[in-house]
């Protein structure tokens, strides 16, 4: 795996890459990670090769990996059967080129709406250039895996070839209703308010400023989990909200389960793992009718979808749930049932089947050929932009 961003930087891509690497380790495969530094020397027992990285202007916590000769050199040393391009941009593009030179098939994972991301940070007029570059990178892959139907449609219309669905898993053991903490609830809502929460990066691309429309909803206490460049502004907009900062592990699971309603505001999510974790925690969800949440949230069954960026609609959805405890309970239970089967083990095995299929498709057409079942892949590399690593299976 080669990634534009990796630990210690935490984001959706990093998290999914870590889960994939853990699955490869469980299945007995080999893995190598190539990522921008600084970073750990190893993860899940697999070595990490670091390359130089540079922070994006105005968003230094997002580090873009710089292509170097080390990418192809390490690939050749490792001799992978599959190169996995995780959300590839620059470092991932280097991995794709190296794989083609070596005659090795690659699998690209599309995970970040980079054009939408750029627009949120003031890079207007860049859509055509960004999409052209991403299409060029993904055309070098044998298969491009997408996390949602909305993303599939978007890429298909833009001429990306070899598309297939691959959704994300969720740790339903960690994120579950039993993590609910009455002590935390008493601390956050001493007067019995309904706890409405947001979990995610506090940044422009998440449209967190939309939360301001919930500031004065009667009998509602707004809870914000996360950190980022928009935090200072958001605190001034929401002086009565509870800001819990960055949480992970059991503390994050406890925070989710202690809420009554989960709200997401960003319309540019290709999947939205926070929504899935909230659903596993037994919460009804209010989210934009765009991107990944459209696949996750069933209106009137597990939550409500609102027109993206419509603050009045967002507020109306929250008010409805805040006023109806029975509805929150019923939809929260349905949320849990809808995602609890999506384990990372099942999703990881699905990914291995994609690897096996591209290996078979690219097997030599002459001479003896060996079958490449998913359970016996020799190596898997993952390259990518946005916080993923290279895995060899």
Task: Write up what this structure looks like.
37% of the residues lie in helices and 19% in strands. The chain is of the alpha/beta class and 393 residues long. Strand 6 (82-86), helix 3 (91-102) and strand 7 (106-109) form a beta-alpha-beta unit. Helix 1 packs across helix 14 (344-361) and helix 4 packs antiparallel against helix 5. The longest helix is centred in the C-terminal third of the chain and has 18 residues, at 344-361.
Oligomer classification: single chain
Choose one word for the global shape: globular
- What's the overall average pLDDT, rounded? 89
Q: Give the tally of β-strands.
A: 16
Strand order across the biggest sheet? 2-3-1-16-6-7-8-9
Gap between N and C termini: 10 Å
Count of helical stretches: 14
Helix/strand order, N-terminal first:
HEEEEEHEHEHHEHEHEEHEHEHEHEHHHE
Share of residues in helices? 25-40%
Nearest-angstrom radius of gyration?
Answer: 21 Å
Strand proportion: 15-25%
Largest sheet: 8 strands, mixed
Indicate the low-confidence ranges by residue numbers.
Answer: 366-393
Find the structural class using helix and strand composition.
alpha/beta
Brief overview, please?
The chain has helices spanning 12-26, 69-78, 91-102, 114-120, 127-139, 149-157, 182-188, 231-237, 249-257, 273-280, 293-296, 311-322, 325-339, 344-361, and strands spanning 30-36, 42-43, 46-51, 53-56, 59-65, 82-86, 106-109, 143-146, 163-165, 194-199, 220-225, 242-245, 261-263, 285-288, 303-306, 379-384.
